[in-house]
Design a protein that fits this description.
Number of strands: 9
Distance between the termini: 24 Å
Structural class: alpha+beta
Strand order of the largest sheet: 1-7-8-9-6-5-4
Largest sheet: 7 strands, antiparallel
Radius of gyration: 20 Å
Shape: globular
Order of helices and strands: EHHHEEHHEHEEHHEHEE
Strand content: 25-35%
Length: 247
């Protein structure tokens, strides 16, 4: 299964989504008229209408002819949505746990064939590999392994920096590279496979795990990083509301 996640920060849709969730937490179910929303966000009514159309297709709002636009409580009540690519400590916090981080590894190595193909570089290209282990109330919950060409940066990240910042911040600050979307392939793996994919795999307490194998793209749609995310789904549970296109 493949899924494309997009970082929509700063767009009318993201602002509108934040506003919808604000209203939902206040107990309000109906959105203001389109003209009022356009004035609130400083955009055109057409832009708001398109954003509302996207939220309707995703199931977050319901539009009823002659009545207006309403928040869909079934969607708004989702704790962890599968689609947005959120920071791991936030995912753990939204699962009701206290998050802590350990930087397991920062090293360099040649790109294997699969990594080279996904990054669009030659096999053997030198990559920086960063592995982090995220804990939920002291229990290993998520492992992330990120790999990017060392040619993108002058200096490798330090464990001290990565303990406090996502790898995306490092690439933005060090290389001027903004990752705005990723394409992921979902896979269920065994504990043995987790041990093969990550140095911290043996620390997971689950027999099977959910893995996201991702390609991360910059604003020019160029792949700049590949990553492997391994989740103990007994701790981090994803939800996805799908709108059925059924006649």
């Amino acid at each position: 299964m493949e899924l494309v996640r997009t970082n929509l920060s700063g767009t009318a849709k993201q602002q509108l989504t934040t506003y919808v969730m604000f209203l939902y937490r206040k107990g309000q179910t109906k959105l203001p008229p389109e003209n009022d929303l356009a004035k609130l966000f400083g955009v055109s009514r057409i832009t708001i209408r398109r954003a509302l159309g996207e939220l309707e297709r995703e199931g977050l709002v319901l539009r009823e002819q002659g009545r207006g636009t309403f928040i869909n409580p079934a969607s708004a009540s989702i704790k962890i949505n599968l689609v947005p690519g959120e920071e791991f400590t936030k995912l753990i916090a939204e699962s009701g746990h206290q998050a802590t981080i350990t930087v397991v590894d920062i090293s360099t190595r040649p790109a294997v064939l699969d990594e080279a193909e996904r990054l669009g570089v030659a096999p053997g290209t030198k990559l920086c590999s960063v592995e982090k282990l995220y804990f939920a109330d002291g229990t290993p919950a998520i492992i992330s392994v990120d790999r990017f060409p060392t040619s993108l940066v002058k200096n490798l990240p330090t464990a001290e920096y990565l303990s406090a910042h996502p790898i995306f911040d490092f690439l933005r600050d060090e290389a001027g590279v903004a990752i705005v979307r990723d394409k992921i392939e979902l896979e269920s793996i065994t504990h043995l496979r987790a041990c093969q994919l990550a140095k911290a795999g043996a620390q997971l307490r689950c027999e099977t795990a959910l893995t996201f194998n991702g390609i991360n793209y910059n604003r020019d749609n160029v792949p700049v990083m590949v990553n492997t995310e391994i989740y103990d789904t007994s701790i981090v549970k994803f939800e996805l509301l799908r709108v059925k296109d059924v006649c």
